[in-house]
C-alpha cells in the first residue's frame, strides 16, 4: 500500500464557537491530494496523545503509510509543546510532512521549517524545566523523609507513613523479604564470610535476588551499603560525617530507629556509595531493619575490601581478577578437574546471562603474558629504593585530617548529649594520626639502597599477582583469543 495524506481532526466537546470535526475535515481536504485517509477523535482532549484515532495514525506513520499530516489548527494535533517536539522527531524520521491550515504552517516550505525550529526551542526549554522541577521535587521529598519515588527497595513495600506535618505521605514498610535483609547483614558480618559465600548460601536455599533469579556480589553490595536498612544513631552520623556528606537533620535527631537516604548528583560511572562527598543524607520516616552496630561492622568490612582493590584472590593463577569475558564483561573463573584447568565465564555459570565458550588454555596464556612481563621488567632502569609506604601514609594522613576537620565543624552544632560521641571519635583519629606520623618519620630516616632489577620468574605467587595487576588493566577472552590491555 502506497503512502497517503492523513487528515486529522479532533474536538473535545461540541461548542457553538468551535469548528466541528466535519468542518475541520472539509478545510483540510483543500490541502490534501486526491488520496487521503481521515482520522478523527471526538470527545478527547488535546492535553495528551492518548486518543484512539491519533494512535492509529501514528502507527501508520511508523509503518510508512503516511506521507503528510494535515490539521485545521496546531492544537488539534497537540496542546503540549513537549509532546509536539517528540512527535515531530517521529515524523521527521519517517519523512512525513506536517501542515497546519490556521497557522499557515507547512514543513515543506522554508517559513514552515523556521517556525518549527522556534517551536522545538520552546519544547526543549519545557523538557528541561520539567526535568528540573521533577528533580527538585524528588530532593525535597527525600529531605522531608518521605519516599521520593521509584520502585520500593528490596525488603520494603511502599505505603503511607506520617510526614513531618503529620499528614500521610509515601513511605517504606517492611515486607516478607525483610528477614532476608537481616540474614544478609548477619551473615556478611561473620569474620570468615565474603560476598561470594553469602551469595552462594542464598542461591543454595533458592532465594531469588532483586530483579533476577540469583545473587551475586553486586546485588549484595548494593543492599549492604544502603543506609535505608540501618537504625541510624549517632555512630552512623559520625561514620557519614567522616565521608563528607551534607546532613538535612541535626545530630540529636539520629534516634537509632529510623533509616536514612542518600541523594545527590553523582558520576554515573562510579558506584552510588563509592564517592559520598557532597551527597545529601536525610533521615527517613520509615524504621530501619538492622541495628547500627551490625550495619557499621559490614561497612568497615566493605571499606576494607574496596581498599584492597579487588586484586584477585584466586589460587589457581596469578592472573586472577584480570580475566574478563569478551562477550558479557563478567569475570572469568578457573575450574580445576584433577590436573586440567578450565576457564569459565561467571556470567554463564552463575547467572545464565552468557553463552560464551572460552577455549584459551590457562597455562599457555600465563606463559605468553609472563614472557611479555619479563621483557617489560628488563627494560626498567635501576633506581634507588624509596619508602613504598610513603605515598600511602601521606594519603591516610590527609584522610584523617579531613575527617578531624569535619568533626570539629560538627562540634559547633553538638549538644551536651552528642558532644561525647564527637570528642571520642576525634581522640581515636588523633591517636591514629600520631601513629602514622611516627611511621612516616621512621621511613624518612631509613637508609635508601639500590634496587636490583626484578626477575618475574623468581617471584612468589602473590608477588606475581601484584606485578601483573600493575602492568595489566584486563584480559578479555573470546573463544580461543585473548586480548591483553596493558597499563603502559
Q: What's the architecture of the largest domain, going by CATH?
A: Alpha-Beta Complex
CATH topology of the largest domain: Hect, E3 ligase catalytic domain fold
What is the domain tally? 4
Reported for the largest beta sheet, the result is: 5 strands, mixed
Number of helices: 15
Q: What is the succession of H and E elements?
A: EHEHEHHEEHEEHHHHEEEHEEEHHHHHEE
CA-based gyration radius: 32 Å
* Helix share, percent: 40-55%
Structural class: alpha/beta
Distance between the termini: 60 Å
Per DSSP E runs of 2 or more residues, the count of β-strands stands at 15
CATH class of the largest domain: Alpha Beta
Mean pLDDT: 81
Descriptive account of the structure:
This protein is an alpha/beta fold and 488 residues long. It folds into four domains: 4-128, Rossmann fold (3-Layer(aba) Sandwich); 156-304, Hect, E3 ligase catalytic domain fold; 323-380 and 453-486, no CATH class; 390-445. 43% of the residues lie in helices and 17% in strands. The chain contains 15 helices and 15 strands. The protein has helices at 21-29, 52-62, 74-77, 81-93, 110-143, 178-188, 195-204, 217-225, 234-241, 292-308, 346-349, 362-379, 390-411, 419-445, 461-471; strands at 4-11, 36-42, 66-71, 97-100, 105-106, 156-162, 168-174, 246-247, 258-263, 280-287, 323-325, 332-337, 340-345, 472-478, 481-486. The strands form five sheets. The protein has a five-stranded mixed sheet, with helices on both faces. It has a three-stranded mixed sheet with strand order 8-10-9, covered by helices on one side. A three-stranded mixed sheet has the order 11-14-15. Helix 4 (81-93) packs across helix 5 (110-143) and helix 13 (390-411) packs antiparallel against helix 14 (419-445). The radius of gyration is 32 Å and the shape is extended. Residues 307-312 have low confidence and may be disordered.
